[in-house]
Design brief:
The active site is at residue 474. It comes from Pleuronectes platessa (European plaice). Residues 402-622 form the Peptidase M1 membrane alanine aminopeptidase domain. This is Leucyl/cystinyl aminopeptidase. By secondary structure, this protein is an alpha+beta fold. The chain has 32 helices and 29 strands. It is globular and about 85 Å long. The two termini are 53 Å apart. Residues 1-46, 51-114 and 135-153 have low confidence and may be disordered. Zinc ion binds at residues 441, 473, 477, 496, 499. Zinc ion (ZN) is lined by residues 441, 473, 477, 496, 499.
Length: 1035
């Protein structure tokens, strides 16, 4: 089925309106509040929930300035101005010259040959105009309400204006967040999915407790069509109630006459129908084709962050935890799964089977609820009293062993590490053929992409590393996120930063052979690159719209969150304080919700050493402000001075901040630089700090093994000393420290603090470098520059950059083998070097890759390409039209998903423009190439010279279809926006990108990723302007 065959939004709206209308026709007694406002006097009264004033929704709350009242043009102007960073004054003068009162009334012609009388009139007029302007200017905060203009700081409560519900009545709630007067206690959810017609009906029974008196129940619902609703108070009878809906906030209100009293219990029962979603959110349908050509259907859920409301009406915020009893009806040829074990199956009339799951034994946030209707097969094992199962489609069952083994090991590790046993009786891990995210940590029912869970018998260690990492991450969530949950999405990092950190920490302990440390280090570099932009945000940041909730799923929440936890752990005395702190945190808040301060307080409270640190004081500087510090080192005799400032790449000096961080600076020097004992610590809390060092010390390296989240500038002498030391002996520093120097000097070059000549000088030691992390970092940075030069058609410079790369890495490239390799670290190094070599058309590389592909084709599946080399081999093969066709055929028949993805990357790397256009189109259509792969396709196509402009055209032309498939702000759309614009470095492209996104208005113009994309192009442009002369001279 083509998911974009018809406009799903239109189709979904039609039955909803019909059902609502018929509901009202059947119930003529319902009071029409729009006609009789006196019959509904309770809504306008403020209740305690409404005292909270949310700035983002303020437009709704001011009478007379409702959201709909804002002039559309005005809104457009405002959003694009925000996007472009224009000041209000610029905006009013440049955008609206013709609408200005003054322009219209100013009499320039009559004053051109003025008489005295005219002069007097003109002067008088100008005085009046000036006075009016001043009055307006000095009343910037004036809001035009019924009561007139308020003075600043005057706290007159504003009358709340409620929006209109879909039926035209007043909807009794105007905020994005739900009121706190009602608390759900338990949900009883019964579902009847119909996979033949892709619809479902449901009944949701919610037991609730009234926390304080209220006349409304507000909860979430999105595209559910209610057929019946009843409310039962205490032991009373259930009576019919009416449901009002306010679509923009995806909320419904239950309408009833009496006031609910604090301490009362009530039961809301809602019957509804809905379509299974065609996207990747909510309760969605999916299909896959088996080897024999049979098409199979399934339905699965993905609720985080805001989609549980698409499957059942609920209080869909993480702090509204409750228990769940789930029942699903199915046909006999399907099976069902949910968070809890199956309690019983009952045969219903008509041959259907009803599966009832056990009631959850834990309180759970709605976004963690999950269910699947499919026909998957499991393999299982009992691990510490938990039944662990891995499910896949039947023909991929043989790929599930690795996941089961790793899960068993990691579950035991976490049970011991956290000193809290995994609380459920079962843990299912399910590979879903069509799944957008990498995986989702639903409690007891973790869902994965096939590539994140399945491992073939001959999979490379690198592919195993991916699977083990994702499992380790999702298992960590069973504690961080599921057991203890952030109160609101502003602190998403408490879930994601922690799970990301624990994934690396647990794998280092359980599977050291996976060399996970290299991946973690590279990840920290990329997190810094993003956080150095002005468009970044604090780890813990305000979130007041659905789009902003989606946007929290970014590298700041995940990677920066994990990085600052590593820095904290590395700076704490002893190796147990961190662990003891998080155990205390988990135990104290088990089953409830927290914010960032709760974590820091728990860590501060655990005293295991006399060197007690105030964690809260230190860490709040890292979570409450965006970005990170640049530490500049200067030495005078035995005195070392450190200065900190915000490392902000943006070219706009006006955005300079006075942020200060509490930095646990670590350093080593030439007398002792490798062992952990060499590490010394200096806490830099103020703008500058000094410490002493023997004058005999030749060089200093700060940020030992790059465990801190900051960049260091050593000054000309400091860099020269380090470069000297490395030229003599690369082993004077750990490989992490060498990679850190390379990352930092490229970052400083991008900031404009060091010239590119200094970068090249440091790289002179490179021919002696053989370790994975420094080589990969240098290759990545040089490759980025090479690609930009190539796209700007700076052919001469691109050729010289190619020579520079080959000078530094040529011998290392030639030393790589093409056979099986067991070490993950060597695989990573080899893959990076050979991909670079083949990108640069190195004859040896191309020849080897072609030979391997030929051998692979001719062997008819018996010979294998080592997993880490598949991408480079497929990429080389795809450059010939004939082999591209062969590869496409293989892609259509491949069953092992990890290999299939590499084939896809090969296909997308073609330089044949017809093939490029085809592959982009198919990625969106979703038939031959699953739509979940579109971000990967775009990211691959854009790197090639032939494809980068096609990608940009494609994104512009298909924007509406893209945001229909991937929600605004979501990780997928962030990735698409950033990839599609990443190769631009000219003013013309900047103007184009700016023009397109500002024209989108509410369809994405305000996404943070758009700001990030624009900022990145500006920085590329600036870098080129500043460095092209140096490149011409020195490269
Ligand atoms: Zn996660």
């Amino acid at each position: 089925m083509d998911p974009f065959d018809s406009n799903t939004a239109e189709r979904a709206n039609l039955p909803r309106n019909m059902i609502e209308n018929s509901m009202f026709e059947e119930e003529p007694d319902v009071v029409d509040l729009a006609k009789d406002s006196a019959a509904f006097p309770t809504f306008p009264a403020l209740d305690p929930d409404e005292v909270v004033f949310e700035p983002r929704s303020s437009r709704l709350l001011v009478r007379g300035l409702g959201e709909n009242d804002m002039d559309e043009d005005e809104e457009d102007c405002e959003s694009s101005a925000r996007l472009l960073g224009m000041s209000f004054m610029n905006r009013s003068s440049s955008n609206r010259p013709n609408s200005s009162l003054y322009t219209r009334q100013a009499p320039p012609r009559s004053c051109s040959r003025p008489s005295v009388r005219t002069m007097v009139v003109c002067v008088l007029f100008l005085v009046i105009v000036a006075s009016m302007t001043m009055v307006l200017y000095f009343l910037p905060g004036c809001t035009f309400t019924k009561a007139g203009c308020r003075k600043p700081n005057q706290t007159i409560p504003q009358e709340t204006v409620y929006p209109n519900a879909t039926n035209g009545e007043l909807f009794p709630w105007a905020q994005f967040r739900l009121p706190h007067s009602i608390r759900p206690l338990s949900y009883n959810l019964t579902l009847f999915p119909d996979l033949d017609n892709m619809t479902f009906t449901g009944r949701t029974v919610i037991n609730m407790f009234v926390l304080h008196n209220t006349k409304r129940i507000i909860l979430h619902s999105d595209n559910l069509h209610f057929t019946k609703a009843t409310l039962k108070l205490g032991d009373g009878e259930a009576s019919d109630v009416t449901i009002l809906e306010y679509e923009p906030n995806q909320q419904i209100a239950v309408k009833f006459s009496s006031e609910l009293k604090a301490g009362q219990y009530c039961v809301l029962t809602l019957d509804y129908t809905a379509n299974l979603s065609h996207t990747y959110g909510g309760f969605y349908n999916s299909s896959y084709t088996e080897k024999d050509g049979n098409k199979r259907f399934l339905a699965a859920t993905q609720f985080e962050p805001l989609s549980a409301r698409k499957a059942f009406p609920c209080f869909d915020e993480p702090a509204f935890k409750a228990t769940f009893l789930i029942t699903i009806n199915r046909k006999p040829n399907y099976m069902t799964l949910s968070n809890m074990p199956l309690a019983k199956s009952t045969l219903l009339s008509g041959g259907l089977i009803q599966d009832e799951f056990e009631k959850t034994t834990v309180n759970m946030s709605t976004y963690l609820v999950a269910f699947i209707i499919a026909n998957f097969t499991p393999i299982s094992r009992n691990v510490s009293n938990t039944q662990v199962s891995v499910y896949s489609v039947p023909e991929k069952k043989e790929h599930t062993d690795y996941a089961l083994n790793i899960t068993s090991k990691l579950l035991e590790f976490y049970n011991n590490f956290f000193e809290i046993d995994y609380p459920l009786k079962k843990l299912d891990l399910v590979a879903i053929p069509d799944f957008l995210a990498g995986a989702m940590e639903n409690w007891g029912l973790i869902t994965f992409r096939e590539t994140s869970l399945l491992v073939g018998k001959q999979s490379s260690p690198l592919e195993k590393q991916v699977v083990a990492s994702v499992i380790a991450h999702e298992l960590a969530h069973q504690w961080f996120g599921n057991l203890v949950t952030m109160s609101w999405w502003n602190d998403l990092w408490l879930n994601e930063g922690f799970a990301t950190y624990m994934q690396y920490m647990s794998l280092q302990a359980v599977l050291p052979q996976l060399d996970i440390g290299n991946l973690f280090l590279a990840m920290r570099f990329r997190a810094m690159d993003k956080d150095a932009l002005n468009s970044s945000h604090p780890v813990s940041t305000k979130v007041n719209t659905a789009e902003q909730v989606e946007e929290m799923f970014d590298s700041v929440s995940y990677e920066k969150g994990a990085s600052i936890l590593l820095m904290l752990n590395a700076s704490l005395p002893g190796d147990q304080q961190f662990r003891k702190g998080i155990i205390q945190y988990l135990k104290q808040f088990s089953g409830s919700n927290t914010d960032t301060d709760d974590l820091w307080n728990s860590l501060t409270q655990v005293e295991v050493s006399t060197q007690h640190q105030n964690v809260s004081e230190m860490m709040s500087s890292w979570t409450s402000q965006k970005g990170f510090p640049l530490v500049t080192v200067s030495r005078k005799g035995d005195q070392v001075t450190l200065t900190q400032e915000h490392f902000l790449l943006t070219s706009d000096n006006a955005t300079h901040t006075s942020s200060l961080w509490n930095i646990p600076v670590t350093y080593v020097n030439d007398s002792c630089s490798l062992a952990p004992e060499c590490r010394q610590v200096f806490n830099l809390k103020t703008k500058t700090g000094t410490f002493k060092l023997p004058e005999s010390v030749k060089w200093l390296k700060l940020n030992y093994r790059n465990t801190g989240f900051y960049i260091v500038h050593y000054g000309n002498e400091g860099w020269a000393a380090l470069q000297d030391a490395l030229s003599n002996n690369v082993s004077v520093l750990t490989h992490e420290d060498r990679a850190s120097l390379i990352h930092n000097i490229f970052a400083l070059s991008r900031l404009g603090r060091v010239s590119f000549y200094q970068v090249l000088t440091l790289l002179k030691y490179m021919p002696n470098e053989t370790e994975t992390t420094p080589v990969m970092e240098a290759l990545l940075q040089l490759n980025n520059i090479y690609r930009l030069l190539d796209k700007r058609q700076e052919n001469g410079l691109a050729a010289r950059m190619k020579n520079c790369i080959l000078d530094n890495f040529g011998s290392l490239m030639n030393n790589q083998t093409w056979g099986e390799e067991e070490s993950v670290s060597k695989q990573e190094l080899r893959a990076a070097l050979l991909e670079m070599a083949c990108t640069l058309n190195e004859p040896n590389c191309i020849q080897q890759a072609k030979a391997l592909f030929k051998q692979y084709i001719e062997s008819n599946g018996t010979s294998r390409i080592p997993g880490d080399l598949q991408r480079v081999v497929f990429t080389v093969a795809a450059q010939s039209d004939e082999d591209w066709e062969t590869l496409l055929h293989m892609y259509g028949h491949a069953t092992y998903d990890a290999e299939k993805r590499k084939m896809l990357q090969g296909l997308a790397s073609t330089q044949n423009t017809r093939q490029l256009v085809w592959i982009l189109k198919e990625g969106l259509n979703g038939e031959i190439i699953q739509t979940q792969e579109l971000p990967l396709v775009i990211n691959t196509v854009v790197k090639g010279f032939a494809g980068y402009l096609f990608v940009w055209d494609f994104v512009q032309e298909n924007w509406d279809r893209l945001i229909e498939k991937f929600p605004l702000g979501s990780y997928a759309i962030q990735s698409i926006v950033k990839s599609a614009t990443s190769q631009f470095s000219t003013q013309a492209h900047l103007d184009q990108v700016q023009g397109f996104f500002s024209g989108l208005k509410g369809r994405g113009s305000q996404m943070r990723s758009v700001q990030e994309a624009l900022e990145t192009i500006r920085l590329n442009l600036r870098w080129m302007d500043q460095n092209l002369p140096t490149l011409r001279k020195r490269l």
